[in-house]
Amino acid sequence: MSSKRAGSSAATAARKTAPSAAETAEKPAAGSIRERNQAIILKAAEQVFAKKGFNGATTAEIARKAGVPKPNLHYYFGTKQQLYDSVIENILDLWLGAMDEIQPDADPAEAIGHYVQNKIRASRDWPDSSRLWAIEVIGGGRHVSNFMKGRLRNLVREKGQVMARWAAEGKMDPVDPAHLMFMIWASTQTYADFAAQIAAVLDRDAVDDDVFRVAEQTVVRIILKGCGIG
Amino acid sequence: MSSKRAGSSAATAARKTAPSAAETAEKPAAGSIRERNQAIILKAAEQVFAKKGFNGATTAEIARKAGVPKPNLHYYFGTKQQLYDSVIENILDLWLGAMDEIQPDADPAEAIGHYVQNKIRASRDWPDSSRLWAIEVIGGGRHVSNFMKGRLRNLVREKGQVMARWAAEGKMDPVDPAHLMFMIWASTQTYADFAAQIAAVLDRDAVDDDVFRVAEQTVVRIILKGCGIG
DNA sequence: GGCCATCCTGACCAAACGGTCAAGAAATTT
DNA sequence: AAATTTCTTGACCGTTTGGTCAGGATGGCC
Fold this sequence. Notes:
Two copies of one chain form a homodimer. Chain A is globular and about 60 Å long. In chain A, helix 2 (32-56) packs antiparallel against helix 3 (59-66) and helix 2 crosses helix 8. Chain A is built from twelve helices and no strands. The first copy, chain A, is mainly alpha-helical. Helices cover 70% and strands 0% of the residues of chain A. Residues 1-30 of chain A have low confidence and may be disordered. Chains A and B meet through helix 2, helix 8, helix 9, helix 10 and helix 11 of A and helix 1, helix 7, helix 8, helix 9 and helix 10 of B. Chain B binds a DNA duplex through residues 14, 17, 19-20, 33-34, 37, 58-60, 68-72, 74-76, 79-80.
C-alpha cells in the first residue's frame, strides 16, 4: 500500500509548472521527479509558513500537506531553514514586476493606476506569498535584508525620480514618492494579509471577487486623486 | 484611550490556594506586587509575541526579557495561551479610540485627518501592539474573531453611515467607507508592521521621527485629497 | 536482464519546549 | 512574634520538534 494521498490540488499545480516542452505524453521525464516534488513541497511549505511563520510551522505539517514523508523534505531541501529560504526566494519577484510601467514618458494615471491594480490582483491571486512576506518583515526581515536594501531600495529610488519628474512637469502633485509607494504597498497587500479582518468586518466568509472589485476601484481612485492625477 | 485592564485571566493560576484576590471589594493596594509583576510580564510578552508570533515565542524568552524565573509566568498567568490572550486583550483598545471625532456634525477634513494622524502616532508609540495584531490576523485571527465581527464591525458600519451622510451633503466624495477605513488602517499601521522594510528602503537604522513626520503629512494629504476633501 | 543512480521511508534520536512541583523566602495579618 | 497568605525558584517531566540513517523501492540506461 503506497501512501499516496494523491490527487491533491498541489499535484495539478506542480504539473502545470513542469517543463512540458520536450516531454511527450503523460509520463514525466526522468529528471522531473525532483522538480515535481520540489514544487509540491514548496507550495505546501508556503501555505504553512504563511499561516504560522517560520517557528510556528512544523516540518511534519508541511510534509503532511505535501503528501510526502517527512524525511523527503530533508532529502530535497536539507534543513527547515533552507526550505524557508527557498520559499522566500520564490516570492521576491512579487515586488519587482508591475512597476515597469512607471517610466518618464508614460501617463502617470495609467502607470500608477495599473500598478495599484496589479498589486491588488497579486493579493488576490497569491495571498500566501503576501502573508509570508508580511510575517517575515514583521519579524525583522533578516532573510530579506539584502533584497530590501538592494534591489528594492534602488527600484524605489529610480521610480521616485520618475515621479519627481512628473511632478516637476505638473503632471501630478509633488508627493514624497517613497511614502506613496509605502502607501500603495500597504493598501493593496492588506487585502491578502488582513483578509480575515476584512472578511469579518464585511460580514463575509472570505474576501471574494466582489470585495476585490470594490477594493480595486476605491484604492485606485483615492491614490490617483490624492496625487492630483485626474 | 481607556485605562489599562487588570489581568482578567490571571486568577486561573494559583489553584492551590484559592486566589481570594479581588472578591471582597476593590482593594487597590497601590503598587501591589501582583500588579507590578503582571505588568512587567505583559510588556515582555507583547514584545516577544509581536516578533515571533504565538508559536515562535517561548516562555523562557519572555521570562528572561521580563527578568523573572519561568515558573513565575505560570504563577501569574496560568498557561502560555492565557498569557497570550491577556496580551491581545490589552491591544483591542487601539482600534476603538481615535474614531470618536467621526461624527455627523464634525468637519470631515478635521475628523478624518485627525484619525489618520492618531493612527500613525499609535504606530510610532506602540509598534509592538500593531505588529502583534498583524501576526494574529495573518494567522487567521481566531483569538480576535469575536471582536472583529462585533465591536469593530459595528464601529465601521456606524462611521460608514456618517461618511455616507457627509457624501450626500457634498462634503466629500462618495467613497466606499469600509474600504476607506481599510486603506487608512493599512497605510498607517504599515509604519509599525513593516518598519524593517521602510527603514531599509529609506536607508536608515530605524523609522525615526523624521520619517514619521513625512509619513503623517503624506498619508493625511493623499487620503483627504483622495476623498475630495480639501 | 543487469547495473547504477536516484528516490523513498519507517524507525529512531537529542534537544527544546510548555508545564509542574515542592520547598523556601517574603509579605501580610493576627 | 507567630501564623498565614502570597510570592519565588531550582529541579524535574512528558511531549513535540528538527533532523538522521540504513535499507528498500524505483526508474533510466546498456
